[in-house]
């Protein structure tokens, strides 16, 4: 790609950017949200059209007017935002538009060859060493499993150039290593891979070369031997980052804010007991399928518990807890998938922030002046980068979308915030700002639960970590003992007596 320029209304998204990729090379593409990474990749995938510049594949100049042109040129992209059809199963999602049929070749005129499609998909799953039920609707699968299906859908085309946008954001550590091993095999076969990620440590593990974008400009291109996390961050943000995990004054209350007793779920977990205290940030770790996601959602009433109780400030919540009742009790929940579960993407910031507490805006009707004042207050307080409060949420970067969700719940004045992978898909600078917002909330006496697959995140900001294994709390790690190694060890091995403290 030579001299690629792309302009949107009033914004230069890419300014004369060059990029090259060799066969059998893994290129790491990094930059803050809004740096131009996604725009550059969407041009290569035929989703956007460049304003200036040229693209060559194997020395031949090509014009990529649409995704079909990119596919015909051997280019496949797996987007960060999952594009699966929830009511179809894994097989149907993987082969949609490329179904294998009997009788008339690979077209839509014959009878679907379900057995052949299952066999081909199973080959890729075996390479990942991951078990996924291919026959159930994908909405019933976990985030990590859905991400694997997205990747397989990209690989099934036998592409010579594969673009992965945040492919590990929803994966556990062991799933990431399996993915990396698979990518190494693809590299040996001559496939060129562009790997876009905010996880800089893993980038240095898998990449051959690192290219850095900032504000639409190419500001760095170096071999992996010359790359360090500190150097990459400095190029990304234009300055050094002294502390990724801001320190906070620790003042944890003595009386539980949240009490969970013998909580159980039909399939995912049972016998869960723990307390959460004012001022505390509690992490919940565990491998995919450990029950950690279902537990977090059960605390908000989004998953139904079958036994046990949940109490807030000593008041036991109804057995048939719903999100509405959880919100009334002072519990807020921020899902990992902002785009499908967290935000109203077609509505503006004002709507997304104020929707959680309309009573505060009503004086016979919703007061527009109060709505504007509230949105302006949170945009300033949380430093949300936006042209105006009238900007649609779908046009914001990932970090600013996360801040909008936090603003929504802060407006409702909750006692407890529950996060699923709070920094999924956001850049290193935005992560620091989100961590600071969490620390500020805890210092004011609120309590936070973080369900995360990011071990550095759990180590960096948590006061205590609970580790789930096979639907049980297998370990409780105190602040002094929290390390990535300890968490990982507890995820894969547990005491014969049950729960143990570290």
Q: What is the topology?
A:
Layout: E1 2-8, E2 11-17, E3 26-30, H1 37-44, E4 52-57, E5 60-62, H2 67-72, E6 75-78, H3 90-94, E7 101-102, E8 111-112, H4 114-128, H5 143-155, E9 161-165, H6 173-188, E10 192-196, H7 200-206, E11 209-214, E12 217-223, H8 229-237, E13 258-265, E14 272-276, E15 281-286, H9 292-299, E16 305-312, E17 315-316, H10 323-328, E18 331-334, H11 338-342, H12 349-354, H13 368-381, H14 398-411, E19 416-420, H15 428-443, E20 447-451, H16 455-461, E21 464-469, E22 472-478, H17 484-492, E23 500-501
Parallel strand pairs: 3-10, 3-11, 6-9, 9-10, 15-20, 15-21, 18-19, 19-20, 22-23
Antiparallel strand pairs: 1-2, 1-4, 4-5, 7-8, 11-12, 13-14, 13-16, 16-17, 21-22
Helix pairs in contact: 14-15
Question: What can you tell me about this protein's structure?
Answer:
The structure is a single chain. 33% of the residues lie in helices and 23% in strands. The chain has 502 residues and is an alpha/beta fold. It has a seven-stranded mixed sheet with strand order 18-19-20-15-21-22-23, sandwiched between helices. A six-stranded mixed sheet has the order 6-9-10-3-11-12, sandwiched between helices. Helix 15 links the parallel strand 19 (416-420) and strand 20. Helix 14 (398-411) runs parallel beside helix 15 (428-443). The N and C termini lie far apart (52 Å).
